Amino acid sequence: AGGAGAGAGAGEGSIYEREFGLTPVINAVGSFTSLGGSRMPPAVSAAMRDASQHFVDMTALIRAAGAQLARLCNVPQGYSATVVNGSAAGIACAVAACITGTDATAIAQLPNTEGRRASVVVDAASDTRWNNGIAAVGGKVVPVGTPHQPMTLEDLEQALRRPGLDKPVAVLLYAGVLQTRHLSLAQVVQAAHRHDAKVILDGAAMLPPQENLWKWTHEGADVVLFSGGKELAASQATGLLLGRTAVVEAVRLNTAPNEGSIGRPMKFTKEGIVGLVVAVREFLARPDRSAEYRDLLQLVASGLAAQPGVRSATIRLPHTMDIQPASIPRLFIALDLHPSVCPPLLEQQRRKRQQHQQEQEQEQ
C-alpha cells in the first residue's frame, strides 16, 4: 500500500513521490476507485492535453461526443449516448431524468418532487452502496426482497403495482448481480414497461467483454451505465451513459453545463469528454487479454506455491459482486495466518463474521 515516500529527490520517481512524498501503489486488485481507477493509454492522455488548450461550446461538444459514442457502442434505433461524471453520478442523473423528463419546471425544482412519481425499485440483495444517488435527486428508494433473499418476479410485480404517486418511475439493477440471479434482464424490462417504469442498469465495472457495450441496450434496458475510469481507461471523473433518446435528452438537461440543474455539481470537463471518446475507441480496438492475464497469474501462483504460510493459490473467475468485472480471471490466495503474524487482519475478519451473524439473527 502507499505511504510516505523516502529519499525521492527532485526529478526522481513519479509525480506522487516528487510533489507529495507518496509511494505509488502496486495494484494487484484491478481498476478500483480507491486506487485511482486506471492508467490511461497514451492516445487518451494526449487527446486530453490537446483538448485542454482550447475553448469549446460545451453543449455542442456533449452532443457531438454523444453521437460518436452512440455509433461506437452500436446502440439500437431510438437510443443515444452522453457523458456523465462517473457511474454513481450517472445513477443520480438517470433517476432525475426519469422523474422530470424534459419538463423545465420539474428540473428546476429537484430535489423537490412534490406531485411527481419518484419511487425507484432496487433489489435489497444487490449492491446497495450507490442508492444514496437516488435520494440525492429526490428519489425514494423502494427496496424489494431482503439482503439475504433476492427480489423475485412476484416481488417486483407487487412493487410496480403501487398506486398513484407511489407507483415506481424506475427500476435500478446492477449488472454484476444479474449474473448471480435467476431473474433476467428481459423479465425485469417486460415487467417494468408494463407498469410505465424505466430500467436503469449500472454496468460500471462490467467491461470487458466489449459486447457489453451494446448487449443490454439491445435487450431493452432504458439506461445503461459504464465507468469511464475503469477498464475503459479514461478519466475517473467520467462515465458513459447509453439510453433511449428521450431519457438521454432529459439526462442532458439535468446535468452540467445547465445552471440550476440538480446535476450541475457533478460537472465533467471538456478534457474528460474528449478522453472518453478516444478511450472507447481504443478499448474496442484492444484484443482480448484473458490468456495474457492467465499467463501472468500462473507466473505469480508458481512463485507463491513454495512460500511459507501460503495454503493455496487458485486462478479462477470471481463469483462475488465485490470483484468486477467477472470476465477477468483472478488469483485467489489462501494464507495460513498465525495470530502473532497479522493480528489486525484476523481481528477484522472476526468482526466481519460477527456482523454477518448479527444480520442473520435480525432477519430471523
N-to-C series of helices and strands: HHHEHHEHEHEHHEHEEHHHEEH
Compute the number of helices: 14
Helix content: 40-55%
Overall structural class, as computed from helix and strand content, comes to: alpha/beta
Oligomer: single chain
Q: What can be said about the biggest beta sheet?
A: 7 strands, mixed
Secondary-structure blueprint of this entry?
Blueprint: H1 15-20, H2 42-51, H3 58-72, E1 79-84, H4 87-100, H5 104-109, E2 119-123, H6 132-136, E3 140-144, H7 153-160, E4 170-174, H8 175-178, H9 185-194, E5 198-202, H10 212-218, E6 223-227, E7 239-244, H11 245-253, H12 270-285, H13 290-304, E8 310-316, E9 330-335, H14 343-363
Parallel strand pairs: 2-3, 2-4, 4-5, 5-6
Antiparallel strand pairs: 1-7, 6-7, 8-9
Could you explain the architecture of this structure?
The chain is of the alpha/beta class. About 40% of the residues lie in helices and about 15% in strands. It has 14 helices and nine strands. A seven-stranded mixed sheet has the order 1-7-6-5-4-2-3, with helices on both faces. α3 runs parallel beside α12 and α7 packs parallel to α9. The chain is globular. The N terminus is likely disordered.
Characteristic terms for this protein:
single chain; 364 residues; alpha/beta; two-stranded antiparallel ribbon; 14 helices
